[in-house]
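Reader question, answered in our methods column.
A reader sent in the components of a multi-part assembly and asked whether the whole thing could be modeled at once rather than chain by chain. We filled in our standard form and ran it. Here is what they sent:
COMPLEX SIZE: two components
ENTRIES:
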Amino acid sequence: MAKRTRGFIGPLGDDIPSIFPIVIGLTLFFAGFAFGVTRYNERTTMLEERRTGLSISYSIMERGFVESDTALHPNLDELCQRAKDIADKNRLYVALSVQDAFTYVGSCNTPDCVFLNTAPFSSYGSGITKCVSDVWNSTFAKGDTKLLPRNYVSYSYPIAIPCADATCKTYQPGLINIIMWNYRPVV
Amino acid sequence: MIRGQASLFDGIFFLLIATSATGLIFYFMSSYGTSADMLMTDAYTVNSVQAALKSLYWVDFDSVAASIPGAATGYREDVMSCLKRSVEAGDVGSPSAPSCGAYAKDAMIESLRKTMIIFTQSGYDYMFAVRKERPEEWVTVQGDAISSVCDRTPRGQACVLQGTDNCDSVTQKELSAKLISIAAPFRIKQGDEIKDYAVFLCVWRR
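And here is the structure of the entire assembly that came back:
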């Protein structure tokens, strides 16, 4: 009888050594799985944003120039409407601005810079509702992108923009910037 | 054999499977989206070069005239029209070209310096060339080629790309193995004859 129970430490005790590798294995697998799912979602979102960005750019770069309004400022109304239509379908915020080749000339109060999707962005400040234009004006325009979501997408394209100076009558070289980000609140 | 060893082996075997599965997840995630990302980057680059070339048809010569020594203003022509006048007279940059054609090369350099800034800042170089069609023959640019490479070359030093070079020279001179080239056709009427030309804008990674 004593010989038959040698090494036997009970039905539960016998399995205790195997519990450790099982627990480690499960932890490792679920941690890896969670990481994989997170990365997959992030990448998919980023690719979707980039794809939408390209769709918007195909649409707004059709003619190669930005029209001017009566005051000879860039008039982005039509381009903005096109960009907005595409961005809305893909649940993205989008903002457009134009600049001459070397200097950012846009500002929220001038027609040089037009902002879209002016839905409340209540995650900025305590109870202060800010529109996308404020975010753009206070952050991205000044090169500070920390308030934007981590995965925003920005494209710049060469485009002819209305002349800023009187000697030139039609267009000068410039750039148009397209920046997009998801509806998710900014952390 | 001690009975606990069998269940321990089961646990270790399970750990091995879990580790392999996790490894597969990591392997899949490291490559997921890479090819789509590359495709979209290429699409963006091609679209940008097209946009740059398209914008040249609208840029007023007067907007860049201030940066060109000796150039007058008031021509009321876009830089591509100036280029056509220059090509009509022979070479690009020919001083005998009528109107703003005499400054076509400088106007093109100045316009491209501004429109292609997103490329030069991202580590790309570009080159602009004109080709006569049927029979194919590259139009000579007087002096150095119209390229960011020549723009960066210090004064007094010869640029690696000369006016007789074209987009093919980039690979021949081993500046890059892969380049993206966009062309746009135009026509010039010389007497009763209509001649077909094409402008080429090519970019490559430095």
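What stands out: Residues 16-60 of chain A form the longest helix (45 residues). The longest strand of chain A covers residues 171-182.
Send us your own complexes using the same form.
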